[in-house]
Each structure stands twice: as C-alpha cells, then as structure tokens.
Amino acid sequence: MSRLGKLLAGWTFRTATPSFEPGDVITAFVTHSDGEGVSSRIGDSVLRIEGDTEVDVETKVRLKVTSFDDQNHVGTAEIVEFLGEF
Amino acid sequence: MPEEPDIELSFRGGRLVSALPIAFFIAWAIFQSGILGIGDTTGLVAGMLTGLIVGLLFVRGDWKDYADVVFAGMTRRVAATAVVAWLWAGMFAETIQVGGFVDGLVWAATALNVGPGLFPAVTFLLAALLATGIGTGYGTAIAFTSLVFPAGLLLGANPVLLFGAILSGAVFGDNLAPVSDTTIVSAVTQDADIGGVVASRVKYAVVAAALAIAAYLAAGFGIPGVVSGMPHANVTGQVDATVSAWGLVHLLDIAIVIVLAVRGRHIIEAISWGLIAAAVFNVALGAADLIDVSAASMLLFRAPQNGLTQAVDALPLIGAVVETVPGGQAGVGGSIYSGAAGFFPLIVLTLLLVAGAEIMRAGGGFDAIQELLIDRVATTVRRAETTMVLGTALVNATVTINTAAEIAIAPYIATLGKRFNINGYRRANILDANTSALGYIFPWGGGLLAGFGAMQGLVGGNGTPWFTQEMLVNPASVWPYVFHGWFLVAVFLVAAWTGYGREYVSDRTSEEVSRV
C-alpha cells in the first residue's frame, strides 16, 4: 500500500458488526474454542469454522466465508490457509 | 549474554498485592506533591524506596527472589533509554540557554507581536513540532521548560497554562513521531510496521490537536496571565530593547538534532552533534562580544586557591575553564555539569519505579488484571476497545515512565484486540495515544517531572538570574491544562464507541515490522 493510501485508510466510522458475502476470502485470527468447535469473531460478528478445526486460538488464518446471516451477524467459514501464530 | 529466565513471586494476600510498592509510591506522591505541595523529586525517591521495602514484607518464600526481581527491573533497557535521553537533553538545553536562546525567543516574540494571550497556543505548536522531530517528549519538555517557559513569563503569559502547553506539545510528538520510543514499542508489540502505524494515527492526532489549539487560545485570552501579587509580576514586562536576537542562532543546532533524529540517527549521536554546534556558537558569539557567554559558562572548575591552581588558571586554553576561589566554594559548574546533574534524582526514581513494575509482573498483578478484563468487562467490541483505552490510560497514569507502562500493558492490548480481530494499526494507536497522553498529566508522570526538573534548574540559573523558587509551578496544579493529552484520550473513547477509525484484521492486515 502506498504512503498516501496508508494515510487515508480508516477515516470512517466502522460498524461493530461487519457483514460478509458467501465466497469472500478474508484474513482473521481464530478467537474462540469450545466444546462445539472453533470460531472467529470479527467485531461482534461471529464466523463458526467448519471442516478442519484442529487449530489454536490466536492462529492467523485465511477464511472462505460459506454463509452469513446479516440479521444475526453470524455465519460459517472454512479455513483455506494457515498463516501461523502471531 | 543469554537472558535469565523470569522469576515468579508469590505474595501474601494474592497476586494484586504485588502492586503494593507502586501503589504505596502513588499514595506517597499524592500526599507529598498533591496535598503538601512539595515538588521534591528526591522525596519521591524516598517514597519508592519505602514502597519497595514494604512490598518485601508480603513476599512468601525466599526474599532473595524479590531482590533479584528488583535488579532485573532496574537493568531493563527501557530504563537506560530514559536515563540517556534525560542526561543528553539536559546538557543540550542548558548549553543553549547560557547561549542566550531565551533572550532570542523573547526578542522574536516581541518582534512578531506574540502577546501573553497567544503565547501558550504558539508554544504548543512549536513544542509539538520539536517533539515530532526529535521523538522524545521528555527531551522536549526539558528543552521548552528551560528555554521557552522563562521567555513566556517575561512576556506575562500564565505560568501554569504555559507549562501545560509545553507538556501538550510533548504528548503530540511522543504520540506521532516515527522515532519516538513509545511509537516504536506500540508498532513492535502489535505486529505492525512503523510507517503504517504513524500514517494511521494522524486521523486521531489532528482532531485532538485542533481542539487543543482552540482550548489554548480560549484559555490564553480568558485566564488572566501574570497578575500583580504573583511572584512573576516583578519580572513581567522587563523586556527591553536591549535583549539580543543573537541567541536565535541556536535554532541551527536544534535543527541539526531534528534532522539527524528524523534520519534515524541514535538520540545520543543526534544530540551530541547539536551540543557540539551549540558550544562552538557560544564560544564564537562570546568572543565577538555579541552575547555574554564563554567556555566557562559551559564548563568551569572552581579550584581552591593555591600555587598550583593559580598556575593552571594562568595557562592558555585550560585556564579559560579554571578559576581559583576560596576553599569553601570549590566545585565544578557550567551548563554541561548542571544540565546533567539536574536529572540525577529523577534517574534514580526511574530505576526504582521500573523495578516496582517488574515486581508487579513477577507477582502476577498484571495477569490478575488481564483475566478480570477479558472474562467480565470486554464482552463486545465497543466494550473491548473502551477497556483498551481506559486500561492503557490507567496503567500510564500510575507508572511514571510511560515507555515502561506501555511495555507492561502491550500484551493485554494485543490479546484483547485479537479476540475481536481488531487490526494491528488500530491496536497500536489505542496503545500509544493513551500512553503518550497520560505520561504528562499527573504530578508523578515522568514527562511532567522532567519538565519540572528543568524548571528547578531555572532558579538562579545563569540564563535566568531573576527566576526565584516562588516562581516554580506546583506540579500538582498543571493537570487540567494538558489539553492535548485529555483530548487525545477523549478522541479514543469516542472512537471506541462510534467506530471512528476502527479497522479489522479482515479489512487490512498490518505489514511486517521493518524496524525493531
């Protein structure tokens, strides 16, 4: 990203509940792990991770969104790439 | 040398008791400087020493471990960085001061018709500029309190407001400067590149600075400056046509420091070059009889009178920095000596405070706070960001040296922020802004103490013979006037609630740290 681009990024009021479309590929941390599996919380929206769930909390991953409910700000996603722990 | 493993301590009464040495010190600082109005840094050293001894009584098991943690804290690099910055900035500021810089500023302010009402706002802007250039808010607080503060008093500006404006400028630079140690810590601990971090924080800094300028203008014209009855009244207006503009030559050596710092030279190197230039200018201006300054203003050996010392005094070159005095008055003096010596009590205090923070880490006090925050308080992204702002502010309001406080709180900010996928830039910005702001507001804050130390150096100083003990600003009285600091915290509280500037990891991932 250019210096100007960096300077101008983020001058907005970003929602607490971001929306996603099925098919979106995003970078995110895995944030929660419980008896039912793992999930990634982005703001107050939650993507439950399906498929390969052998992953620790705070691992950075690439996620492909498979479904998203705009009303309740919840959806599902699957891991397409592991980016490691940071 | 390989790093020794971290020692863990156990305290009677639980993990939070590990905060006792620092809590004891804060209570002492409030009692001493807030209630009794005694701004004696060595008194605070006594408070921290007592706090460390009181903490020892609550340790379970071997007291040797506690002693080892004290040593581990005192030898942390962050403490050495602050010590170096103070010693060098102190020598530099004092050397410029004996070279007539204050007179030059008074001359310029008079020539440009900057009156007492406008002076605090202009001071804020200039201090912000210097601090952004040299990257050290403490150095800026020292330089401006030594140099610009007395000039403002002579023009009749309100002393407390003026000190607040200087500290505000220091906050601005500490927050925004790419070479600031707090900026570097914020970027490194949140896995973000420094350039990106600085670029992304402009949107918060300019909003707070615009509000601060408006506030200094309103207060500058609204609050009476120096009124009769105040100790400063006797000197206000004593600006006559005879003040020399030649001291402004020292703007050149300040520029040298800024340029070298911006180019990434070490602070020791940058200020040393500035100091050498200032010394050369002083000797030249003194020799040309333009300013009353000489080599002896910067370094002077006052030797007891005897045959040998009189012979040395008569030597060429060396004799210029030696004078013979009656035995009881022997000593070393000059700006190099007094500029550094003014910070000795503060340096000792810093080392002890960093030790206190290390005890809190080793005793689990910091961990206990983190668990409470994650489980009970930060349940939504707004509440998480609000907690990050207030948590950083609270730790910085209590730990004197803000870089040390920032290092202590940084892992919490990372953990809490990642739980909501808040990206590295936003986390670094929340961390650094509130670190910078709170380190300069309270009477035990390192930035404020640094400025106050410089102010004590003005009493009877070579460049300010008119400055008396009664003219010192009470450190406990300045907190409402550090406008930029308060506005910066307010901007982040509003930003946490409204989402202004918020970015998620999925929006933009911060780049690799390019400089550690």
TrEMBL record, chain A:
The organism's place on the tree of life at top rank: Archaea
Protein name: DUF7513 domain-containing protein
Limits of the DUF7513 domain: 1-81
UniProtKB/TrEMBL annotation, chain B:
Transmembrane parts of this sequence: 16-35, 41-59, 121-141, 147-172, 204-223, 243-263, 270-291, 336-355, 437-458, 478-500
Annotated InterPro entries: Na/H_Antiport_NhaC-like_C (IPR018461), NhaC_Na-H+_Antiporter (IPR052180)
GO terms assigned for molecular function: antiporter activity
GO annotation, cellular component aspect: plasma membrane
Membrane topology: Multi-pass membrane protein
Organism: Haloferax larsenii
Main location: membrane
Domain Na+/H+ antiporter NhaC-like C-terminal stretches: 25-222, 278-486
Record-stated family: Belongs to the NhaC Na(+)/H(+) (TC 2.A.35) antiporter family.
Entry's localization field: Cell membrane
Protein name, as recorded: Na+/H+ antiporter NhaC
Keywords associated with the record: Antiport, Cell membrane, Membrane, Transmembrane, Transmembrane helix, Transport
